[in-house]
Amino acid sequence: AKARHFKWEVSNMFWSPDCEEKVLIGINGQFPGPTIRAKAGDTIVVELKNALHTEGVVIHWHGIRQIGTPWADGTAAISQCAINPEEHFTYRFVVDKPGTYFYHGHYGMQRAAGLYGSLIVDVADGEEEPFKYDGELNLLLSDWYHESIYNQMVGLSSKPMRWIGEPQSLLINGRGQFNCSLAAAHTQGAKQCTGGGNKHCAPVVFPVLPNKTYRLRVASTTSLASLNLAIGNHKLTVVEADGNYVEPFTVDDMDIYSGDSYSVLLTTDQNPSSNYWISIGVRGRNPKTAPALALLNYRPNNRAMKLPAVAPPATPAWNDYAHSKAFTQRILARAGTPPPPATSDRRIELLNTQNKMDGGIKWSINNASMVLPATPYLGSLKLLGLKPTLGASARPAESFGRGYDVTRPPANPNTTVGDNVYVLAHNATVDVVLQNANALAHNVSEVHPWHLHGHDFWVLGYGEGAYNGDAADAARLNLRNPPLRNTAVIFPYGWTALRFVADNPGVWAFHCHIEPHLHMGMGVIFAEAVERVGEVPKAAISCGATATALMAGGDHP
Ligand SMILES: O=C1O[C@H]([C@@H](O)CO)C(O)=C1O
Prior knowledge:
Elements: E1 3-15, E2 22-27, E3 36-39, E4 43-50, E5 59-62, E6 88-94, E7 99-105, E8 116-122, E9 135-144, H1 149-156, E10 169-172, E11 205-208, E12 213-220, E13 226-231, E14 236-241, E15 244-251, E16 253-256, E17 261-267, E18 275-283, E19 292-298, H2 321-328, E20 346-357, E21 360-365, E22 368-370, H3 377-383, E23 416-418, E24 421-424, E25 429-435, E26 448-452, E27 457-464, H4 471-475, E28 484-485, E29 487-490, E30 494-501, E31 506-512, H5 515-519, E32 523-528, H6 544-551
The protein binds ascorbic acid (ASC).
The site of ascorbic acid has 4 residues, from loops.
């Protein structure tokens, strides 16, 4: 294992990700940010300089558990103080597990401003992946808005709320086409893209050789959109999800929610004189965004921009949830993976509702919409102890109780704010049931991908309607080969049950990965055995009340 050093400068820059010039957040003059590639067991050292003009920044390493380094998780107000303009901060952490990951901003809505990139961990020297392939293609998927995140954030907190709407474009490796389509010949009313060149929005072309097997690494860092990937004439064999091996299964198309990552194997067994469409479309919301298209270019056919004669594969209907569920439920742990603990010590049931507050709209968990404190939790809990913030004297509710009607808008739509901090005992086995419900409007319930920091969890099962905890619900849980993941979706009007072991002291966010929903309060905090956290680097806690404590000479207890 070795240390891999990176020097990064985060700054605003003009860029045209979908051919329209905007300002985004890039790293070292690049968008997306540089790809980090390492081997399992390596230590990543990122010396970050914040070169934004007037705002703080942090970077979250999505899917990396940060075992023993909770201060490097990169969540503003939770694991560290935001890095101020012109300040440096060094992230140092071990990538312990091979897999497909990514990193992104985790302060306000900076991820949606383009602050993201790929993080790929290969097996350690001398180890082998449990599958074979000849080459790799990397697809980092995102969505893109023409309105700045500042406009978006102001809208979301306005009274009445102004919703951000659907994204203007979908991006593959930071590239999309807003004003034209590669498949105009097959798309009503679209203008043909003239293609290549070195424009920021030049279509992505993946060169491949015939009769080989490629590992596609696919990750989604979308702000809002749930995606579906299909490749004309080719099948996809899923082998990895969120850095964990899964029992291989083969599909024609796959869903990818924000926060998900996958490896899929693809065999180039088609006619090599043609190229093939890679198509990414929107699911789970009535789409207004055109699919993103890229080309699979069979070599030695060197006409990279030769367009397939046929239309791109159609994305399944956005509301065909049966299709989504069928895909999701095929994801199971690879044979030989140890099963989860057979029982749990604690069950936390989290009802997700859309609510009203002071004339605006929030998302709430057990009727409390999460707000973050001025002083980041990791430092404040370690140095100052758990103080009730926001006037909340009690810990948040363990359950939403029985009898809530998930099929209708909330009977009492009003919510309050909460810190939503759940204190977890060291090594407790914790079950979380995420319960979806009807939103404020009648007959609306949306998909929410929930992401846990600091851990993988087992996805024990999914159910329809309200979770009761009865024998029928228990029978829906898979304790034999549930997949380990860090992101799991709740389907409309349904529930999802997760299990994890609280064996990683730290303060971990657990939230909907949809950027505006997190911003509207859709999350909780797990404060896990904070008394066992080692010495927190001062740079991570030199703000707010912890800075005051440090100045008072109160060194680390
Ligand atoms: O949080 C959301 O708000 C809007 C809508 O419900 C109110 O405008 C929407 O589609 C969301 O996902």
